[in-house]
Amino acid sequence: MEESAVHRTIASIWRIESAKIIAALARIVRDVGIAEDLAQDALIIALERWSDAGIPDNPGAWLMTTAKRRAIDHLRRNKLRDRKYEELGWEIDWQQEPDWDEALDDPFGDDLLRLIYTTCHPVLSAEARVALTLRLLGGLTTEEIASAYLVPEPTVAQRIVRAKRTLAAARVPFELPPKEELPARLSSVLEVIYLMFNEGYAASSGGNWIRPVLCEEALRLGRILAVIAPDEPEVHGLVALMEIQSSRFRARVSPSGEPILLMDQNRALWDHLLIGRGLTAIERAERLGMSFGPYLIQASIAACHARARTAAETDWVRISALYDALSQVTPSPVVELNRAVALSMAFGPEVGLEVVDSLMQEPSLKNYHLLPSVRGDFLTKLGRKQEAYLEFKRAATLSRNEKERDLLLRRASDCAAE
């Protein structure tokens, strides 16, 4: 195999295996920054040796064993062996070849869960949590993260470095939170994954309407979390939401990358395998018999769209009721704006406009482009074209996404032409 092909293969293997390796090392050395450095050492060794000797039959196990050896060397060099043995209860005869799997055995699921809770710790800012999670659990390079979020690479690198330092300075333990802290900490984990997915699903800025790599990584992390935390309905709810939303990608943009709104999409292009997975995740959450949280409610809304064979068959009355429930669970101006859209579709644009008008003085929506966009849509349906034109123009000035801005300007132009 050519060297470039070997490197591409190793990169693919690393993307799959790195989170498990870093999680296992972090359990040993109790520091995610050191764990990543040791894992990178193992990757460098692999790049050097596999280019000549070829890729082993079980590359993941090879990387894990090499990385664990590096961790043990690190403990020796730093004279932490005795303390670590006492903490972890190890009894290893250094004169013999240790059985690495037996000595350091721990379910990968437990390690990964600890790592997720660590990278998403509330002591970090939302931006730092996302960057660190993409780096350590998604296996993305700083360049890839910077490209996905359209920020300079040094900015991402600084966020990651500061996040590691913050975790170390705060002495955040590499362990599952106490039982009483689990709900709040899980909320932070889900928030990070949700933010990641949303930025990929509707890019806030730049020249692309969607950024699939962010959605793919968020969905992958969500699926991992669903396996290692199977009794949490909100985990399944978020996975369901992402599965169903992801099903629309092929229909969501034109061949030239222009946005296609939900009601105008060709539903034959929706991925029904992903829809099926999403509906199954909803059923799994419902079987747990707990009250619906925000992600499960949003997944149920997405399911209403997914089940409708045509836009006209959408059950907007049920969607309105679900938004009512969502506004009770997590009240916010953005939820209220979405509720206005559902009400307009179920009961007429004048009903939706009344709700939107009540939000016009909301400070948090002052620069939110979707507020004038939604109002413009209602005004268009009511025949108030000149007012709609002004709303779409305002929305275009507020949008930082080039494709979305172009769409809003076209809608404004259509109002002016009539």
Can you characterise this structure?
Helix content is 70%, strand content 1%. The chain is an all-alpha fold and 418 residues long. The chain has a domain at 3-106: Rna Polymerase Sigma Factor, Chain: A (Orthogonal Bundle). A two-stranded parallel sheet has the order 1-2. Helix 7 crosses helix 10 (182-201), helix 10 runs antiparallel to helix 11 and helix 12 packs antiparallel against helix 14 (272-287). The longest helix has 27 residues, at 3-29. The protein is elongated, with a radius of gyration of 24 Å. The termini are far apart. Residues 90-108 have low confidence and may be disordered.
SS-derived structural category: mainly alpha
Number of helices: 21
End-to-end distance: 63 Å
CATH class of the domain at 3-106: Mainly Alpha
Mean pLDDT value:
87
**What is the CATH topology assignment of the domain at 3-106?**
Rna Polymerase Sigma Factor, Chain: A
What fraction strand? Answer: under 5%
Organism: Tumebacillus algifaecis
Pfam family, one: Sigma70_r2
GO biological process, one term: DNA-templated transcription initiation
InterPro entries: DUF6596 (IPR046531), RNA_pol_sigma-70_dom (IPR014284), RNA_pol_sigma70_r2 (IPR007627), RNA_pol_sigma70_r4_t2 (IPR013249), RNA_pol_sigma_r2 (IPR013325), RNA_pol_sigma_r3/r4-like (IPR013324), WH-like_DNA-bd_sf (IPR036388)
